[in-house]
Amino acid sequence: MAKNCPHCGQLLDDAAFKCSRCERWVPNELFRRLCAEDITLIKNSDLTPFTPSLVAAMVIDLLKDSSLNRRLQEVGGGLSGKQEFNLLVFESYCHFNGIGHSAKKKRSCRDTIMHTLRDKLLAGIIESSSERTSRIKHEESMHSLGREGRLLYDRLEDVWKMPSPFEASEHLASMVIGDEQATIDNAVYLFTHLMHTLRSMEEIYAGIFLVEEDDFDWQALVGRYAL
Ligand SMILES: [Zn+2]
Asked: Is the model's pTM score more than 0.90?
């Protein structure tokens, strides 16, 4: 499907938000589903619309290059499969939290969007860890990993209620690595990683406008436009 830019006449893909030639916003299916305030916000702040699936895929991709796992292997002297899984959940949580703080979201759908994002992130982690190892094979264990991941996400929220960064660090290590191997070194390392992720990704996530999963077909856009 194709459409013409109403400003300059350029032939565009039907899913396009912006004209590839004059770079002005063009009518699109997503804008028909958003309220006027949201559209104004997107245009004025030049935000890029994302679905939870798309942003989750981006985060999972970033986690592939992470050195956190390797670093903690050195510090802690070997991690179990469960600890490795927790670490991935923790790393995704660092991004999830950054997105929660920095990204704009469709009006009155914030909670739904963040819940979907959490579930997409966990599904992505479970999928990528089952690719890497043969530990996770069955539907059933994938289901229980999803449940464990959601539980860990809830518990990680407590980090923000801790009275000091030191206690927050200890709490993190206890949840992610377990009390027995939670040394001060890796506690501080985990907390620093959380803070660093929030800081380094802030600008990127502030440029995102999150919509609901079925608000637009992002797969139609990926590969055809530089998002
Ligand atoms: Zn144009």
From this structure: no
